[in-house]
Write a structure and sequence with these properties.
alpha/beta, TIM Barrel, 8 helices, about 30% helix, globular
Length: about 290
């Protein structure tokens, strides 16, 4: 039976289907019950390991190793990425982290208003944490064109540094250039705390979707070479269906948070046309110049 073109990796040599990748991931998961290293997996199923080695695997949304708030990394992230055959993770902290917590029903709630300057100081401290993580664990940073391909070629784990929510800006557009200078390349517009950039999915919409400041942020991210992520946004703020897309010079990723919200978009890292692609929320895979279709 011929593979369904709807679920295959375009531009790949031969046919690499979504089923192939899922089967390989299943073998890895099963192997993890009895094997300790990636080498053990290779010995137990060479074909599955080769398939995973042949694609660029990127986790598009990760808070691994304590990225959201731990003072020191919780574990060796680079070692786990090598074992799991992952090329890169979009590793992020939450900009509104100091003012959100889970209630007894495990729902995330905003507990208070931040003090003036608090969220900007918090983000600066997390940027320092990322710098220490990359240096101490010898993680590469994917900053621009070709960095993911080079990391995959060299089997060198990499991070795409990200921030979930733009509350750190506190209305100051110039803060975007500062976080970009310190390595951020993936920026999510809104999170749980109400934002002056647009409405989010967990609060009643009051701003009609994307605000003028939100549009300015998208334009500045395009100028600086940062991916714009519209997760958590309402439809009017760029969520399901991505009405905010016309304001961006490039397609924007949307990682669904609600059951009815599903979409697939390419994401561009670094300079215009420096692209990587993905679908779903678990492992995104790409073989240049391939893109998943679904």
């Amino acid at each position: 039976m011929e593979p369904n073109p709807k679920y295959q990796l375009e531009g790949a040599r031969g046919h690499v289907t979504r089923r192939d990748v899922l089967a390989a991931l299943g073998v890895l998961a099963l192997g993890g019950c009895v094997a300790r290293t990636g080498g053990d997996v290779r010995e137990s199923d060479v074909e599955a390991a080769q398939l995973l080695d042949d694609v660029i695997g990127v986790d598009m949304h990760s808070h691994a190793a304590g990225a959201t708030g731990r003072r020191t990394p919780a574990y060796d992230l680079a070692a786990r990425m090598r074992s799991g055959r992952m090329t890169a993770v979009c590793l992020q902290h939450t900009s509104d982290g100091p003012v959100i917590k889970r209630d007894p029903q495990n729902r995330v709630r905003v507990t208070r208003e931040p003090d003036p300057g608090e969220l900007w100081r918090f983000t600066q401290s997390r940027l320092a944490w990322f710098e220490n993580l990359a240096q101490s664990q010898r993680l590469r940073r994917a900053l621009g064109r070709g960095d993911l391909e080079a990391a995959h070629r060299d089997r060198a784990p990499a991070i795409v540094q990200a921030i979930e929510g733009c509350q750190f800006m506190e209305g100051r557009l110039e803060h975007l250039a500062e976080v970009q200078r310190r390595g951020v390349r993936h920026l999510q517009l809104v999170h749980f705390m109400r934002s002056d950039l647009g409405d989010n999915q967990t609060e009643s919409p009051t701003q009609g979707g994307l605000t003028p400041l939100g549009r300015d942020v998208i334009a500045e991210c395009n100028r600086l070479g940062m991916v714009v992520d519209v997760a958590h946004g309402t439809p009017g703020a760029g969520g399901r269906g991505c009405p905010g897309q016309p304001h961006a010079a490039h397609p924007v990723p949307h990682q669904p948070r609600l059951p009815q919200a599903r979409s697939v978009h390419a994401a561009h890292l670094g300079r215009p046309r420096a692209g990587w692609s993905g679908s779903g929320r678990a492992q995104r895979s790409r073989r240049s110049p391939a893109t998943w279709t679904a």
